[in-house]
Design goal:
This protein is 45% helix and 5% strand. By secondary structure, it is mainly α. A two-stranded antiparallel sheet has the order 1-2. Helix 1 packs parallel to helix 4. 18% of the residues are buried. The mean pLDDT is 82.
């Protein structure tokens, strides 16, 4: 009987990993206005499920009490504690799985309700380069001197440019 009570105490204190560690999405609205801060991992519900299935092993293992001289009362206590533990762990696993599922659905709804991305706009392309303006024709005023330093009439070649000849001596004498 003491073993059954100990099993029951352990089941009550340990059961509920999902109850303690799994958080649902809370009130985020429909469609969700914010990305839900919740548990999206099935780790704790799976742990609760495994512990629930292993608790059934207490019920299904008749060899546990053979040869120990224990009576049917002890076996009944083991079965009862196994059923209670299995029920507690299974309920916690279902509760955790439900919370994780609602978290994943809430996050998916938030992402689906987001506006589509804006198209990429490129800056306007630069204008085509303009041709360089043509300077004066060779041999004319401001143009380069032609072959043999020849310029048009009234112009002289100075530094390979055709310029007007000065009207008087330099310095005005």
């Amino acid at each position: 009987m003491k073993q059954g009570l100990a099993s029951l105490a352990i089941a009550v204190s340990v059961a509920g990993c999902s109850l303690a560690f799994v958080h649902g999405p809370g009130d985020v609205g429909t469609p969700p206005r914010v990305y839900a801060e919740c548990t999206d991992s099935l780790l704790w519900p799976v742990i609760d499920g495994v512990l629930g299935l292993s608790s059934l092993g207490i019920i299904l293992n008749p060899d546990d009490t053979e040869g120990s001289g224990t009576g049917s009362n002890e076996r009944a206590a083991q079965i009862t504690s196994g059923v209670i533990m299995a029920a507690a762990f299974t309920a916690s696993a279902i509760y955790g799985w439900t919370r994780v599922s609602s978290c994943q659905e809430s996050r998916a709804a938030f992402l689906a309700s987001a506006p589509p991305p804006q198209p990429m706009y490129y800056p306007p392309q630069p204008y085509a380069p303009q041709p360089y303006p043509q300077g004066p024709q060779p041999g004319t005023e401001g143009g380069v001197c032609m072959a043999s330093n020849v310029c048009a009439q009234g112009l002289v070649c100075a530094s390979n440019l055709c310029v007007r000849a000065p009207s008087g001596p330099p310095g005005g004498y």
